[in-house]
């Protein structure tokens, strides 16, 4: 049996859908986990409540552990550590964890992911680490503050410098997670271990976009010339302070901007095409949609 955590989230929902499509009398068995689970349609799985995990992981062979990164690091480490412990106690045989790709290594986001990878590596189960690239929607969201007004001003300003960010469609990440989880379940059912056991995959986007690329996309979207004006990290910090974000979100956002401007967020290689078995989905429309969603 496969359990997917976090099924109310964008990634978890897609993974559950994909695995459900493979389930049936002769297929795999999949169950949903979420903080709001009622025990009927979904199990209650709250990483902040270890008791829910011990009960929720009962009978689970393959755990698809969707990271729960929206909090300060000490909270994320405690919740991910609780999952590692509960999976061991429940006899889970293979844990698949959605981590962060290597291009994000120098960002503040990386620490809890690398800690979790290490923690899981010491567990009694097989592990597969899916190091997810940055979502296309993430770059769109970062760009949204200036992308909307650009329809009037003709100026797209952001603290991207000349850097670019490699971005990936969440659907591609979900498709890969589904195939890795299904393969793990089949391997366990036939008495073996998955070929993905012990593997770490870099699921980087194969397309990198920067400020000039965003301006070009907005030029097409608005049917008028939009030019990119790089701004400073100081200006970005000031602007973020007025957006009602949690303090840790400001830390992570500035870290992303700083890494992008320094050129670190552009990936060199990716395991996505091989694991997907087809060309990755195009990301330009996803970035434009999320950048202009509020306009
Ligand atoms: N690669 C990237 O660009 C990127 C961008 C943003 C986030 N992320 C990370 O990737 C994860 C999945 O992305 P997403 O797009 O699906 O995020 P999302 O749509 O914002 O969903 C948030 C996810 O966090 C889960 N969660 C929060 N607190 C939890 C807790 N206490 N216990 C268990 N689960 C908890 C939610 O599960 P419930 O069903 O229980 O609500 C949900 O799956 C995020 O949680 C974050 O760690 C990656």
UniProtKB/TrEMBL annotation:
Domain NmrA-like: 2-113
InterPro entries membership: NAD(P)-bd_dom_sf (IPR036291), NmrA-like (IPR008030), NmrA-type_oxidoreductase (IPR052718)
A Pfam family matched in the record: NmrA
Protein name according to UniProt: NmrA family protein
């Amino acid at each position: 049996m496969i359990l997917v955590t976090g099924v109310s989230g964008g990634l978890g929902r897609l993974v559950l859908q994909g695995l459900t499509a493979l389930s049936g009398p002769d297929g795999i068995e999949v169950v949903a986990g979420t903080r709001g689970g009622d025990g009927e349609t979904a199990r209650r799985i709250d990483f902040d409540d270890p008791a829910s995990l011990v009960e929720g992981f009962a009978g689970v062979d393959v755990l698809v552990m969707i990271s729960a990164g929206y909090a300060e690091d000490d909270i994320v480490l405690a919740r991910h550590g609780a999952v590692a412990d509960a999976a061991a106690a429940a006899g889970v045989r293979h844990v698949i964890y959605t981590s962060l790709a290597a291009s994000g290594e120098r960002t503040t986001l990386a620490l809890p992911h690398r800690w979790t990878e290490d923690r899981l590596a010491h567990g009694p189960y097989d592990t597969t680490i899916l190091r997810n690239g940055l979502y296309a929607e993430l770059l769109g969201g970062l760009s949204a503050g200036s992308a909307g007004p650009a329809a009037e001003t003709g100026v797209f300003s952001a603290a991207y410098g000349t850097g670019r960010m490699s971005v990936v469609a969440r659907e591609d990440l979900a498709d890969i997670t589904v195939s890795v989880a299904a393969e793990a379940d089949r391997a366990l059912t036939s008495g073996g271990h998955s070929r993905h056991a012990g593997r770490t995959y870099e699921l980087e986007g194969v397309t990198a976009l920067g400020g000039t690329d965003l301006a070009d996309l907005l030029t097409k979207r608005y049917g008028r010339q939009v030019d990119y004006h790089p701004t400073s990290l100081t200006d970005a910090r000031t602007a973020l302070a007025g957006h009602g974000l949690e303090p840790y979100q400001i830390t992570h956002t500035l870290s992303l901007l700083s890494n992008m401007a320094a050129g670190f967020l552009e990936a060199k290689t990716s395991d996505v095409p091989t694991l997907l078995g087809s060309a990755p989905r195009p990301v330009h429309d996803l970035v434009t949609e999320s950048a202009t969603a509020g306009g």
